[in-house]
Amino acid sequence: MNILAFESSCDETAAAVVQDGRVIRSNVIASSVEVHALYGGVVPELASRAHVEAIVPVADRTLSGAGLTLNEVDAVAVTYAPGLIGAVLVGVNFAKSAALAAGKPLIPVHHVRGHIAANYLTHPDLEPPFLCLCVSGGTTAIVHVKDYTDMAVLGSTRDDAVGECFDKVARVLGLPYPGGKYLDELSQTGRDDAYVLPHAHVADAPMDLSFSGLKTAVINLVHNAQQKGEALSLPDLAASFSGAVSGALIPRVLHAAAETGCQRLAVAGGVAANSRIRKDLETACRQAGLRLFLPALELCGDNAAMIAAQGYYELLAGHTAPSGLNAYATRDLALG
Ligand code: KG4
Predict the structure, then answer these.
(1) At what angle are helices 305-316 and 111-122 packed, to 10 degrees?
(2) 178 CB under 6 A from ligand 1?
(3) pLDDT over 90 for what percent of the chain?
(4) Which of 62, 107, 170, 185 is least surrounded by Cβ atoms within 10 Å, i.e. has the fewest?
């Protein structure tokens, strides 16, 4: 079964065709990141306008890359939540029109469920149940994937998402936007014990996280050094920060594994590309006897192949949408 999917929740206009939820036949991404880089963050209206311009050529390239016409796909999936509302609306409206024109089922997909499904594309043998650490620009959550469409959030951030924290810290270190990957590169040559940074705990919620204190601590450290004219080692600070983030995530994931008895852990979202987090998870999972599934680097960030993969399982579960499908800026992952 071939599913054509669209993703437009932030600054990537993406379309893909995936066969049976597992095999990528075509995967096209057009990004407006260079426009937003000028402003140091995504400008919602510019993102929406870029989607409007890009979505038709992206859809054309995707279908021709898969060697299919619209009439030959079996269903059309789309990210309908969460995201920048004006951006999500473009994809929803386009997918709805495509499904209607071709007389195909329309499948609404939660963006974070899509990130989780990126692991099905990388690991053909991965099946639920498993735990998934979801770390992106907008989400930080530990999810119990009980079945392909049955999920429970065990813990989440009380304030900033990890990716947001990476980007803000990168900005104060003078790195380009989006800074997560540049901070990751900078940290490679730094010492992670050079700066002592706070580790937050949420009282009575051992699987919840908090990153705003860590972010503020780095910003204050940089501003204080600037005011006193002191030099900081940016690689050391990047390494110390990355170590602090990883040190916050890993014990909570291990706690969730112990609570649920899950032996398998997957990771999802843009921050799943982070080298320090990947390395520390490999060590922690080896020591704890857990099997670790990391998504391919090219599938960590936003793409539509992951939406098509999840769309396949939503379709099997009978989760199709009427033509009145709307878009939502926020939406509970457990509700689908
Ligand atoms: O999943 P994604 O593409 O978009 C959302 O759904 O939010 O995630 C984007 C986030 C950005 O904050 C970006 O800086 C971060 O992922 N990111 C990284 C790395 N690569 C991307 N953060 C840390 N280390 C990386 N290597």
Answers:
(1) 100
(2) yes
(3) 99
(4) 185
pLDDT per residue over 20-35, tens digit each? Answer: 999 999 999 999 999 9
Q: How many CB atoms lie within 10 A of CB 228?
A: 7
Q: Is 302 in the pocket of ligand 1 (CB under 6 A)?
A: yes
Q: What order of strands is seen across the sheet that includes strand 291-293?
A: 150-156, 140-147, 130-135, 264-268, 291-293
Please state, as a whole number, how many other Cβ atoms lie within 10 Å of the Cβ of residue 236.
18
Q: In sequence order, which ranges of the chain are alpha helices (DSSP H)?
A: 33-37, 44-66, 85-102, 111-122, 162-172, 180-187, 212-228, 234-260, 275-288, 305-316
237 contacts: CB under 8 Å, gap ≥ 6: 173, 190, 194, 195, 218, 221, 222
pTM, two decimals, is: 0.97
Q: Name the closest-CA residue to atom 21, ligand 1.
A: 270
Residue bearing the CA closest to ligand 1, atom 12: 163
- Atom from ligand 1 closest to the CA of residue 178: 14
| 178 CA to centre of ligand 1 in angstroms | 8
Q: pLDDT value at position 178?
A: 93
Model confidence pLDDT, tens digit, residues 95-108: 999 999 999 999 99
Which atom of ligand 1 is least distant from the CA of 273? 26
Residue 318, Ramachandran bin (φ over 0: left; ψ between -120 and 50: alpha; else beta): left
Q: Return the best residue to mutate from 36, 116, 166 for the ligand 1 pocket (most ligand atoms within 8 A of CB).
A: 166
Atom 7 (ligand 1): residue with closest C-alpha? 137
Integer-rounded Cα radius of gyration of the chain: 20
